[in-house]
Design brief:
Layout (H helix, E strand, L loop, with lengths): L5 H17 L18 E5 L2 E4 L4 E4 L2 H4 L8 H11 L13 H13 L6 E5 L2 H18 L7 E5 L8 H5 L4 H4 L10 E3 L13 H19 L3 E6 L3 E2 L5 E2 L3 H13 L2 E5 L23 E4 L11 E5 L1 H7 L18 H16 L2 H15 L1 H4 L4 E7 L2 E6 L6 H11 L2 E2 L6 E4 L7 H17 L1
Parallel strand pairs: 3-15, 5-6, 5-7, 7-10, 10-11
Antiparallel strand pairs: 1-2, 2-3, 4-12, 8-9, 11-12, 13-14, 14-16
Length: 445
Amino acid sequence: MTKINHSTLVATSSLQQRSLDTVWHPCTQMKQHETCPLVPVVSGKGAWLHDADGNHYLDAISSWWVNLFGHSNSYINAAIRDQLEKIEHVMLAGFTHEPVVTLSERLKNMAPGSLGHCFYASDGASAIEIALKMSFHYWLLRGQPQKSQFISLQNDYHGETLGALSVTDVAIFKQMYAPLLRQCAHVPTPDWRYAEPGESAQDYAIRIAAVLEQHVAENHEQIAALILEPLVQGATGMGMYHPIYLQRAREICNQYQIHLIADEIAVGFGRTGTLFACNQADITPDFLCLSKGLSGGYLPLSVVMATDTVFQAFYDDKIARAFLHSHSHTGNALACRAALATLDIFEQDQVIDTNKIKAAYLNKIAAPITAHSKVTNFRNCGMIWAFEVETKDADFAATCFQAGLKQQLLLRPLGTTIYFMPPYIINEQEMDLLVNGTLQILDSL
């Protein structure tokens, strides 16, 4: 560990206190920081974060799942610097620019099916709001205003703005704001942890899809769309399910004429082992929501990709039939350029194939975690790993987080679920550190 002098300690303490005095941190009970100090990060390189005390932490969760190719990536840095000398931002109403056009063209060519129209925002929740509004508005334009309801999966998370929270099923985020939210039906999750003993993930997904079909059959005249997180339900503990559920969901939506909204904000761009999770089911949603890794974790950017059919419903001489939704920084040029550089890396470095090799290596060395007496439901999907820890610690997530820092690991458990979502540039030595450090944490509980 790097040695530090007294003046560094004073500076660190000052930064922590200044932050507590002025910054209201997200998803945080601020009072907890009276006993659990903030980590004052001053720099990052590759898979590592460095704090003001000279400590180093392997970013095992990609800084909330956004940082695909490491911190301070030289290729993305250079692209942003180049764009800075041209145009940093111009409003996208009545104007356009090269980065947003090129990015839209490339996304169109990469995405499944006829998702040829890109509507940009700054974050995942905003993308969900856009998709919900577009779906509702589409049916209104089609003369079916009664189709105004949405359904989602049990345990799904879609964001914390009011529309996104309405289709979210995470009580700790939702209960307090229930009077502000629209009613939404949540159908059972295909997460295989809920399967009966001896029931395969595929058989369970098929059985639960039948429940979805029954609900849709009974209520489709009022339903605008089904929204779901494809293959992995993130915020409620990395629940994973079989792709056949997506296939059945697409068939059911087609049969009963409702939209399918795929929230790939967390799982898009290679996280599940394919470029998009929907690829594994060979389906095309009506709306594909992307963010997080879209810009490599550099700048706030999200996009809703819509089909030609949806787009054409809004294409008219009347302004009232337009999709009247906007964000000041829609299609920000710097963010789009960062996204283009991120897509370049995918193509140049054969990332998807390389990730398969890395996933196989981590699965191999993680055998002691799988066999650990305190571990259940060890699972993997692409570059996501998760498992539950049997513990009586009511504050396990905070305990594990602090224990992780001592092992040079940034871990942020979801309840009693520990998960890994490392940057794709993680190497074997770093994966060894991740597994060995996690074992040290489990043994110390």
